[in-house]
Design brief:
The chain is mostly helical. It is 37% helix and 9% strand. The chain has one domain.
């Protein structure tokens, strides 16, 4: 009986098989790249939510020590410009940089309510928590926008209250346009809209 000799052909992948595998990988990479903006947006929103929770915790500690929250009254009906000014109020009262020189004032025994909020602690960071805008130190979110903050004095007549909450309003506009009221649903805030 005659034995069949093994084929001299190398046992490997053909060019067509390799091209099919590479094509499938390219299609999968395209799907991944297309989904990255959505993934990055969710990551940034998560960072902002965490940071706002940290600021709220600092505000609670501040209120315990001082009897009220830092005041930043709205100029009009819950306007964005007053909210942006509130970013500087948050910086001054929570960072420990009372004299506004960019550093925590340890010499004056200033209390830090939110760690690493002062400008010099995070200026080299990939994602800073404060920046100088128009000569003022402001607290920013991971989108690079100032965190908005409004607070009126305690025990104000409810009819005169312009904030949504009786304590304070804090929010981030995320990637929304603050001049477009239709994009307000993108905000991350401490109030519920109805």
């Amino acid at each position: 009986m005659k034995r069949k000799e093994p084929s001299k052909r190398n046992s490997g992948f053909s060019m067509i098989e390799l091209m099919v595998v590479v094509s499938i990988m390219a299609i999968l990479a395209g799907f991944l790249i297309a989904s990255l903006p959505g993934i990055m947006s969710k990551i940034n929103r998560g960072k902002v939510e965490t940071f706002i929770a940290e600021l709220e915790n600092g505000l609670s500690k501040y209120q315990i020590d001082n009897g009220s929250f830092p005041i930043n009254e709205p100029a009009g009906e819950h306007d964005d410009a007053s909210g942006v000014e509130g970013s500087a109020v948050l910086y001054k009262h929570l960072s420990g940089d009372w004299d506004l020189n960019g550093e925590v004032d340890f010499d004056n025994n200033e209390k830090v309510y939110v760690p690493k909020l002062d400008y010099f602690s995070n200026r080299e960071s990939k994602e800073g928590r404060s920046v100088v805008i128009g000569g003022e130190y402001m607290v920013i979110d991971s989108y690079g926008n100032p965190i908005r903050y409004l607070a009126q004095p305690p025990n104000i007549d409810p009819k005169k209250r312009k904030t949504y909450n009786p304590t304070y309003d804090i929010w981030s506009i995320t990637d929304a346009n603050p001049d477009n009221p239709d994009e307000a649903s993108k905000y991350i805030s401490n109030w519920q809209t109805q």
